[in-house]
Specification:
Blueprint lengths: L1 H34 L34 H32 L7 H23 L5 H16 L15 H33 L11 H34 L7 H23 L4 H24 L9
Helix pairs in contact: 1-2, 1-4, 2-3, 3-4, 3-5, 4-5, 5-6, 5-8, 6-7, 7-8
């Protein structure tokens, strides 16, 4: 069954790559339509996102405004289907590994990377469904491809649980919360990158992107979801550490990186809520914060430590 799980991961990678290509190609086609003067007043955005004004973020999804035309809209539809197919395939892979091993599929670096890719897709697709924010796929899906490639670069053999990981319920809860937190932070990162593209190239891609204040609010809303989850990750990890090693905190590289990540996102939320900080500075802070997320994920592979299960 582990072999079938590996095939499912590879199929999910193919679906994610095709989805990314479809979204990017749809954006290119929409850009060409507008620059040629075919639809001067339209918002194209690979199929027409609900991003004409801030009220979109406070209402239920409705029909798209300013659809770009048949080709981008069709590509966006197929791209979305492929992304959902990739999520289903990753779900199947994780379920098969769980059945085969009798534990949560979170122990080895391969398993955690597959789980992280699942979290990336799940949270992105939630935002696509709720806000019609398909443009985020231009950043979110290529990042998911990178994580899937990383997962496939590791041995997929199922390692037995070491004693420190034998509290399966607490371990499972700790990791599940982490992958949803990381997924939310990916969405905030995608919104921040698109905000910066619009800020540094004013007018050049405005017909492709949501308004800057919409991107700013999307990044904020994703962070509001991710930050309390990250808080839970640290608290659950501390409880787990006390049970496994007899101490709540040991300044392990992954623990330290998680704390730094939590502080950066906390600083962003404080600056936004207390100081009303928006714009380029806030977007750059979200980019830096997500770089810390990536370092947190890869840190145990680079520096080892107590979290280096399945790495060596």
């Amino acid at each position: 069954m582990l072999l079938y799980a590996q095939y499912a991961v590879m199929a999910a990678l193919a679906a994610t790559v095709l989805s990314s290509i479809a979204y990017i190609w749809g954006a290119i086609q929409g850009h060409q339509l507008v620059t040629k003067g075919a639809q001067k007043q339209a918002k194209v955005l690979v199929g027409g996102d609900l991003v004409d004004d801030l009220d979109v973020l406070d209402t239920a999804p409705t029909s798209a405004r300013g659809v770009s035309g048949p080709l981008p809209a069709t590509l966006a539809k197929y791209a979305s289907w492929l992304a959902w197919a990739a999520l289903a395939l990753l779900t199947a892979a994780l379920v098969m590994r769980t059945i085969e091993t009798g534990r949560g599929p979170f122990v080895t670096q391969h398993e955690f990377a597959v789980s992280m890719a699942w979290g990336f897709l799940a949270v992105y697709l939630f935002f696509e469904w709720k806000y019609r924010a398909r443009t985020l796929a231009l950043i979110a899906l290529p990042m998911t491809v990178v994580i899937q490639l990383y997962a496939l670069s590791w041995d997929s053999t199922a390692d037995p649980l070491v004693p420190a990981l034998q509290n399966s319920f607490l371990l499972t809860l700790h990791i599940i919360v982490a992958i949803f937190a990381y997924g939310a932070f990916l969405v905030s990162f995608a919104a921040a990158v698109l905000f910066l593209v619009d800020a540094y190239f004013p007018g050049k891609f405005s017909h492709l992107l949501p308004k800057s204040d919409v991107l700013d609010r999307l990044g904020y809303r994703a962070t509001v979801i991710g930050y309390p989850l990250m808080t839970m990750v640290i608290v659950l990890g501390a409880v787990w550490a006390e049970i496994a090693w007899g101490r709540y905190w040991s300044w392990d590289p992954k623990e330290t990186a998680s704390l730094v990540t939590w502080l950066i996102y906390g600083g962003y939320l404080h600056a936004r809520v207390a100081r009303g900080w928006v714009g380029k500075g806030a977007a750059w802070l979200l980019v830096i914060a997500f770089a810390s997320v990536i370092f947190t994920f890869f840190g145990n592979a680079i520096f080892g430590g107590l979290h280096s299960y399945g790495v060596v």
